[in-house]
Specification:
The chain is of the alpha+beta class. It has 15 helices and 5 strands. Strand 3 (229-236) and strand 4 (240-250) form a beta hairpin. The N and C termini lie far apart (48 Å).
Length: 293
């Protein structure tokens, strides 16, 4: 990823979305740009116009934490956007190269035994591990059944973003497709700021940009987010509609990986749906040919 282009487009897009009224400034009648002017952001951040212009051109190298925090306040960045700005700054000055653990490609990573035991111990809901590129790296049996459509189209190279934008069945699986698409792109954009030298991520973004107008439009918005907790709706081809809460846990032992667990409200139709899915998964596994057959 081109760090300077990422910085320039991110800061410009954040500035464009803030109205003068939101910033407590007079709107005036002769504004030629959407949102705030550079001079107005500079004033709000208490830096010179020339210095802020330099930052917005993509030159974050050497910017102090205090300046970055002031710019974040001026642009009204949320926690995810502030973290993204700091990641871009770290990448610009090279400090991340020494402090960030090197990410391993999905095809070479396998869950160690104790992690798989943890996943398998979760029996009431889908549990899986993914990386920032949204590759599914390890699952419990219920997650494997839950993402049956994903694996059907991808085999063992399951990637949630690729499924979202390139597989028509994703629109059935995600009743709130636009929301799910926004989340997927925001996760990838966040990862791009955290690890701009990830070639696999660069290739994935290039593939999706080429093959999906929906992805390309969203990628250009430069939205980022933390994806830690919430509720989503799904439609599974075997058990029907499911409304599930999720928790995403960053793995301290495996930096860059997230363990996600989906659960249903106790006593709800979705809880019964997960029980049916578990039974279906067990039956399917029992009927599958054994490797020695």
């Amino acid at each position: 990823m081109d760090n300077q282009a990422e910085v320039r487009e991110f800061l410009t897009s954040r500035r464009a979305r803030i109205s003068p009224e939101q910033a407590g400034l007079p709107a005036g009648s002769r504004r030629r740009v959407p949102g705030l002017r550079r001079s107005e952001v500079a004033a709000l951040a208490d830096v010179s116009v020339e210095y802020y212009a330099k930052l917005e051109r993509g030159n974050l190298a050497g910017a102090s934490p205090a300046v970055l925090e002031a710019v974040a306040r001026a642009l009204r960045l949320d926690d995810a956007e502030r973290a993204h700005l700091l990641n871009l700054a770290h990448a610009a000055d090279g400090s991340d190269a020494l402090t960030r653990p090197r990410r391993r490609a999905a095809r070479t990573w396998t869950a160690h035994r104790s992690l798989q035991w943890v996943l398998d111990a979760v029996t009431a809901g889908p549990a899986f591990v993914r990386n920032g590129r949204m590759d599914i790296l390890a699952t419990n049996p219920l997650a494997r059944a839950f993402y049956d459509d994903v694996y059907a189209s991808a085999g063992n190279q399951a990637n949630l973003a690729r499924f979202q934008f390139l597989d028509p069945s994703s629109r059935r699986f995600h009743p709130d497709w636009d929301q799910a698409a926004d989340i997927a792109v925001a996760i990838l954009r966040t990862e791009a700021g955290r690890d701009p030298h990830d070639k696999d991520l660069h290739d994935l973004v290039g593939e999706l940009s080429t093959r999906s107008d929906d992805f390309r439009t969203r990628w250009g918005a430069h939205d980022v987010r933390h994806h830690g907790t919430g509720t989503k709706r799904f439609h599974h081809h075997t058990v029907g509609d499911l409304t599930l809460a999720y928790e995403g846990l960053e793995m301290a032992a495996e930096p860059g990986l997230t363990l996600t667990v989906y659960t249903a409200e106790p006593g709800s139709p979705s809880e019964e749906g997960l029980r049916l899915l578990s039974s279906w998964a067990a039956t399917t596994q029992a009927l599958a040919p054994h490797p020695s057959d």
